[in-house]
Amino acid sequence: MSLRIALLGLLTVSGPSSGYDLAKKFEKSVAHVWQAGHSQIYPELAKMTADGLLAVGAEGARGRKIYSVTPDGQAELRRWLLDHSPSTTTRSETALQSFLVPLLEPDEAVTVLRRMKTSAQAHLAELEELRAARNAIADPAGRWGMFGAYALDLGIRQTRGVMEWADDSIADVERRSGTA
Amino acid sequence: MSLRIALLGLLTVSGPSSGYDLAKKFEKSVAHVWQAGHSQIYPELAKMTADGLLAVGAEGARGRKIYSVTPDGQAELRRWLLDHSPSTTTRSETALQSFLVPLLEPDEAVTVLRRMKTSAQAHLAELEELRAARNAIADPAGRWGMFGAYALDLGIRQTRGVMEWADDSIADVERRSGTA
DNA sequence: GGCATCATGTAAAAAGTTACATGATTTA
DNA sequence: TAAATCATGTAACTTTTTACATGATGCC
User: Fold this and answer.
1) CB neighbours (10 Å) of residue B120?
2) What pLDDT score does A2 carry?
3) A85 and B176: CB-CB below 8 Å?
4) How close is the nearest chain B Cα to the Cα of A65, in Å?
5) What's A56's domain CATH number?
6) Which of A40, A148, A173, B4 is the most exposed place for a label (fewest CB within 10 A)?
7) B134 domain residue, yes or no
8) Residue A70 DSSP label
9) Count of domains in chain B?
10) What's one Pfam family the UniProt record gives for this protein (chains A, B) (predicted)?
C-alpha cells in the first residue's frame, strides 16, 4: 500500500511523469521515509494503471510512458491520509544494535555506539543538504510548497536525537564500567 | 539477517528456550525495534539449527524443542554487532504521512497531525510501562542487566521527539493558513 | 565507434504477513 | 467436559532486494 501512496503523492506534485522520472525523484525526496528501486516501481505503476488509479498518456520519446493520477487515484491518496492511522512500529537495524549492545564488553559497546553516532552525523549532513537544496527551489507559500518539508524536519530532529542518545549511552557505559 | 540476530540475542540472555518462549519474549521486548510472529520464528529457528548456529536439546513436555546458542551462533552475533554497520534507512508509515500531509487542506492537515500526536502519546505510554516492568525485574548491575535498556531509552526519546514535532508542525500549518 | 546515461522491464530469492490446521494439557 | 492456553507447524500471499537483460539516444 505505502509504495502506491508514495507514488500517488509524488505524481500529484510533479505532474505527469514517466517511471524513470519517478524513480529519480523517489531517490531524492521520499527516500528518507520510504525506499523503492525501479524494479519495484515499474510493476507497481502497471498495477496501479490496471486498478484505475493512474492513466498512461501519449508514449514519449524512447518509449517513455507518461503516467498521471486519475480522480480515483486522488481519492485513494486522500482516503489513506485522512482515514488510515499509520502503524507506529519501527524496524530499524540501528535500534536492534542498540538493543543488543549490552551483550558486548564495555569497551566494545562504546566502539559500537561511537560508530552509530558517526553514521547518524553523516545521515544528518545528508538531510541538511537535502533541506538546503529544497529551500533553494521550492516556494514555501506555493500550492504544495511544504510537500516533504515536515518529514524532513522530523528526520533531522530524530537524527539529532540519535546523536544525543549515543552520547548519553556512551557516558552511561563508561560510568558503569568505571572506565570514565 | 536481523531476525536471526534478534533471536540469537534473546536466546543468549534467556538461556535455552523453546520457540514458543522466544515468540513470547519477542513480543514483550524486542518488538519495539523488530517484529516477528511465530510463523516467521519457527522456520527461522529450524534454519539456524541447520546452519549450526543453534542446537536442539532434549524435547520437553508437549513436544517443546529447547534451543540453545552454539559457539558458532555466539560468533555470528558478535560479528554482526562489531562489524556490521546498520543501515540508517527508515521505513515508516508515520513519516510517509508527514511527508504527504501538505497535499491536504490546512484544517485536514491539522487533523492528521493531531492524530499522529495522539498515537505517539499512546506509544510513549506503552514504552514507559515496558520500562517500569523492566526496572522491577532486572538488576542493572548484573551480567546483562542493561540488555534492551538503551534501545528502550532511544525509543522513548524518539517518541517524545515525534510529539514535539507534531506540536510544532501543527503550529506551522496554522500560522501559514492564518487560522491561528 | 564506444561510452555514458536514458528507459523499461523480468526473474529469482529473501523477508514478512495473514490465515489455516492440529493436537496436548491445564483449569474451572 | 468445555474453554483457555500451550505448542508447533504449513500455506498462500505480498513486499522487498538483487541480479539479469535489452535497446535507444546523445556525446566525444
Assistant:
1) 21
2) 97
3) no
4) 24
5) 1.10.10.10
6) A40
7) yes
8) -
9) 2
10) Vir_act_alpha_C
